[in-house]
Amino acid sequence: MQAEEEGLVVKDDAQSTEAAESKKLDNEVELLLGEDPGAKKKDQVELHESLVSRWASWLSDGLPKEIKVQVVDKYPRKGNISLEAPELNEEIADTLNETGVRRDQLFNQEQNLAGSALSALGQGITMILKDEEEPLDHLELLEKLADAGKLITQLHFQVSSARRAFISPILTKSMKNLLQTSKPGSLLFGEKLTEKIKTAKSMEKIGKEIKASPLPSTSGTSKKLSRPAPRRTLNWRGPYARQGNSYQGLKQYQTKFPPSQPVSKSTYSNVSKSTSKPRPLRDAKK
């Protein structure tokens, strides 16, 4: 009985050896054939489900403000190494316009986020390196690594937001309003952007067709056209001239006539004498 069992063991070992050799042969053949493009690549990241669900949310929406402030304040950026963002030289700051200053401030905030993440990560690595001197606290190590992940996902989100902000000025107003509702993912402005644009355009077209166009008002126009224009005499003066204002208005267009003078009878007689024809000399001959 024991001999039979030993025979079975030897037989199983031989079969496993043959299977291993055939598998090795298959691998050699696959190398000769070349890399299989349909095979799953081994360089794809595989993270824990609890980590994936959290990081995916923070990458698209960012950290809640209170959590972000709490984690940043937990890890100092100064010590035997400075992890602070470098300050801008005053000589250079004076030459920048308002847009340049705001952009530098944005980069400064992002660098400080990276510095806090490096501080958390560095403390965790230091705990591992000092494991022989001090017993390693796995929960404390996990906390530091998790905080580093939070800060890096927030930094990732802020860079995506900055890229979107730099692109938005070249877009139309309707496109800006549409893209503000989208969230970054594998694509900067979200997936299925073409379908969203088509849907927005169709909805805008339907809204214009439903909305009734206002009728033009003709009552006010007809009243204005039927009203006669005011007559102005030659001696008419503008309102400023009548009120004695320093601005004389239309005074330069006024025409002044000399006051009328009474005409004497002698004037009429002189005119009639000068203009009358001389009488013939028939009476003188008679």
How does this model look, in words?
The protein has a domain at 49-89 and 96-162. The model has no long low-confidence stretch (mean pLDDT 76). Helices cover 61% and strands 0% of the residues. The protein has helices spanning 2-33, 49-61, 65-74, 90-93, 98-129, 138-167, 173-180, 193-210, 219-226, 239-242, 265-275, 282-285. It is built from 12 helices and no strands. With 286 residues, it is mostly helical. Residues 8-23 have a biased composition (Basic and acidic residues). Residues 243-277 have a biased composition (Polar residues). Residues 1-23, 208-286 are annotated as: Disordered.
**Shape by Cα distribution:** extended
The fraction of residues in strands falls at under 5%
N/C terminus separation:
199 Å
Overall mean pLDDT score? Answer: 76
Query: By helix and strand content, what is the structural category?
Result: mainly alpha
Q: Give me the number of helical elements.
A: 12
Which features does this protein show?
12 helices, mainly alpha, 286 residues, extended
Short description:
The protein contains twelve helices and no strands. By secondary structure, the chain is mainly alpha-helical.
Give the secondary structure arrangement, pairings included.
Layout: H1 2-33, H2 49-61, H3 65-74, H4 90-93, H5 98-129, H6 138-167, H7 173-180, H8 193-210, H9 219-226, H10 239-242, H11 265-275, H12 282-285
Helix pairs in contact: 2-6, 5-6
